[in-house]
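Input (structure):
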């Protein structure tokens, strides 16, 4: 593992662990937490994209950190296509109504 790989995984692990430690019980807060995990993954996908990684390399790194909560491979591919097309916003426009 390169130093960049280690740095990325450490940063993601800290973000993910702190998100998991929140003790919200309400359903609405659970939904916010799920959105936060997805947003964290999109931020990290964009970071990996800027490093020149393929979407599969980025997804493998996400799997190491997020486990079963990792975005599906079709989602990572979709985001990578959009980054390649010039997209820089990380808000899911399909859901931001």
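Output (sequence):
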């Amino acid at each position: 593992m390169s130093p960049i790989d280690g740095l990325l995984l450490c940063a993601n692990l800290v973000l993910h662990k702190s998100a998991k430690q929140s003790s919200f019980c309400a359903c609405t807060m659970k939904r916010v937490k799920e959105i936060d995990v997805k947003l964290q993954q999109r931020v990290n996908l964009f970071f990996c994209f800027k490093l020149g990684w393929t979407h599969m390399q980025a997804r493998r790194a996400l799997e190491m950190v997020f486990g079963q909560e990792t975005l599906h491979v079709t989602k990572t591919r979709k985001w990578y296509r959009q980054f390649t097309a010039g997209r820089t916003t990380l808000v899911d426009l399909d859901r931001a109504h």
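Notes: The longest helix spans residues 27-51. Helices lie at 3-20, 27-51, 55-66, 73-84.
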